Amino acid sequence: MARGTNLTQSIVERLGVAIVTQKYSMEKRFPVEAELCEQFEASRTVLREAVKMLTAKGLLSARPRQGTRVEPEHHWNLMDPDVLRWTLEKKFSLHLLAEFTEIRLAIEPLASQLAAERADPISVANIERALERMEDEELGPEGPLQADIAFHVAILHASGNRFYIQFADLIETALRISIRFTNQFKGVQFADVDDHRKVLIAIKNHKPSIAHKCMTRLVTEALDLIQDAMVNEEKKTKRKTRSGNKAKN
Fold it and tell me: Measured in whole angstroms, how far is the alpha carbon of residue 72 from the centre of its chain?
């Protein structure tokens, strides 16, 4: 059973990446079941389960007499952590990262505010533990990154709002890309622990408005960095276009 499950997940991963990177698209024929079974050395049952999972994510659809086809990007469920991860990792877009950060701006400041109002000692301890790990540079670059993600996810849980908690996997998935990018753009290896500590202190001291304000500042800084990068990218594109036009003339 475990092997079947692992194989199904492997097929979902490989086909998902292939769709996102346009190896398969609306214009390119999606392989029939027999071809995929042979390609992945899988049974029809396992293959159908994988296709079913990709259909639930909005990447595929099956129609009578038309077979399985790839859906256009606007049908993809970007709220699915797998789809978001594939898109950010394999088809990186600053615009998509900016849009996701705007979602964070709508969620995390209020989650911090609610955490300051509702968090129990265990929830606060989880946030504090993540912050302590962010300061431990001996963990290497991946350690503080994981701790930074854990910090934001712990606040969602501390909010006590079951809907915000549902965003935890999504936030974790995107932060893995976003934090690396913003730190690189700032020219630093690790996030600013002091700014994160201000959020924690506000939550510990039950200061909802201050917690909201501090988290807003954190996420807004990330959004500003991404938007600056978008402007720089646009300038580079324009320079290349002008250079190309001059070469032609």
Answer: 20
pLDDT on residue 65: 76
* Domain CATH number, residue 164: 1.20.120.530
Within 8 A by CB and 6+ apart from 49, the residues are 8
Q: Residue 159 in contact with residue 111, Cβ under 8 Å? A: yes
Mean pLDDT of the chain: 89
Contact 95, 231 (CB under 8 A): no
Alpha carbons 103 and 27: distance in angstroms, whole number: 31
Is residue 107 situated within a structural domain?
yes
* 169 Cβ contact partners less than 8 Å away, ≥ 6 residues apart: 81
Per-residue confidence (pLDDT) for residue 117, from 0 to 100: 98
Q: 226: domain range?
A: 92-241
Mean pLDDT for the stretch of residues 106-110? 96
- Which two structure tokens, joined as six digits, stand for 47? 């293959």
pTM for the model stands at 0.83
Contact of 76 with 19, CB cutoff 8 Å: no
pLDDT of residue 1: 38
